[in-house]
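Inverse folding, one chain.
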C-alpha cells in the first residue's frame, strides 16, 4: 500500500514541480496555490491511511 501511495503522490508532484507554472519566482501566487493543494492532498492521504489502519488493523 505504501508503494502505491508513493507512486500516486510522486509523479503528479514531480510533474507540477517541473512545470514552469509552479516556479515561485515567476508566479508566486500560483506556487502558493500549488503548495496548498499539495498539502491538502498529503493530509487527505495520511488521514485516509490512518483511518484504514484504524478500521481494519487496530479496531477489530
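Residues assigned per position:
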Amino acid at each position: 500500500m505504501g508503494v502505491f501511495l508513493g507512486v500516486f503522490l510522486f509523479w503528479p508532484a514531480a510533474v507540477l514541480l517541473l512545470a514552469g507554472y509552479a516556479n515561485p519566482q515567476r508566479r508566486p501566487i500560483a506556487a502558493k496555490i500549488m503548495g496548498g493543494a499539495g498539502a491538502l492532498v498529503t493530509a487527505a492521504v495520511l488521514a485516509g491511511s490512518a483511518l484504514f489502519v484504524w478500521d481494519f488493523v487496530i479496531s477489530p
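The chain has two helices and no strands. Residues 24-55 form one domain.
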